[in-house]
Amino acid sequence: MKTSLLLILALLPVRLLFATAQMPERIEYKGETLSMFSTPLEDAFSKDRPRPDNLFEFQSTANWRGYIGHWKIEEDQLLLTALYRERYEKDAEGKHTRTKELIPLDKVLGAEAAYPMKADWFTGTLRFPRGELVRYVHMGFGSQYEKELLIKIEAGKIIHAVEIAHDPEKDAYRSSSDMQWVALGEGLENTTGDADWIDGRLLPTPVIYPFMQNKQVFKTRGIFFTDEEGPYLWIPETKETRPLNLPIHKSPPTEIAKGSHVEIEARFYLAGENFELEATSIRPLKPGETIHHSSFPAQLKEIRSQDESDPKQADPSPAAATSTPVPAADR
Predict the structure, then answer these.
(1) Which of 183, 212, 230 is the last residue of a domain?
(2) CA–CA separation, 30 vs 154, rounded Å?
């Protein structure tokens, strides 16, 4: 994309994500020891049970959480069997060595806690990569493998399991997060709902000019998060698109949990020199409802062809940019 997109990208703030692939957890399941691209321990912490950061020693950008959890699924119950703190040191010859030290569980989850412990605090989806690596992503647990086993957990108990296959070409515009969510909805009477909402990845493009000019309300979808800076909508990266973070200036009171797939109804709000989403409603998506519109690849192709055929259209003057500001957040 040309200068216009660079201008667009400057108008909406973004939040930084962990820009390093993370070390997986380990789990025993049906006689195998697997890597796990999920961190269920984090859900155990709250205001009443704060995270003991003093015990989780950060020594590597590949392990921001500061520990490696070992887990087991036994009789459909998720169990925490060990937490290890890893240390990196140099020996007398200057060679780097890595050692691991068991973290006492009572120091983490309270005086009565002991290994193995039922993870009844956890409700969510566990991810297990299977087969060969098909796309490396240098961030979090974003890398894709040939297959992925998904196990849905409720209060520490298995309620559903499904395996999905990744096709790098077919799924070039779909994120792992969305494929997992849609897969978990298989067999349910839900629709992907491609009717009246805009793919969030189109927000940094001229498609949204009319919504900006008329302060028009629109619907879009993504994954809801909140941090010390406030709530935001996250659209994960795909093979062909980068991650997108859309700050939410104002949203109605909601009990929606962080990490929920949602549809929001919003308009753009000018916050200082940046644009944010002013949400009028937020609806949790049902398993099976996608956050990636089926028409997105064709729309993106059309936008790119217009830029290539008409550079002036893709490169508005400073005056035009002032009168018709455009939001975006990509990095």
Answers:
(1) 183
(2) 19
Q: Is 310 found in the same domain as 215?
A: yes
Tens of pLDDT, residue by residue over 247-292, are 998 777 778 888 899 999 999 888 777 778 899 999 999 988 999 9
State how far the Cα of 206 lies from the Cα of 203, in Å rounded to an integer.
8
Pair (169, 242) in one structural domain: no
Structural domain count, the chain:
2
The number of residues in the chain equals 331
The single-letter code of the amino acid at 94 is: G
Q: Give the predicted TM-score (pTM) of the model.
A: 0.67
The closest alpha carbon to 276, from 320, 225, 329, belongs to 329
Q: Classify strands 68-74 and 77-90 as parallel, antiparallel or unpaired.
A: antiparallel
Please state, in angstroms and rounded to a whole number, the distance separating the CA atoms of residues 328 and 302.
Answer: 19
Residue 204 and residue 275 in one domain: yes
Q: Are 245 and 237 in contact (CB under 8 A)?
A: no
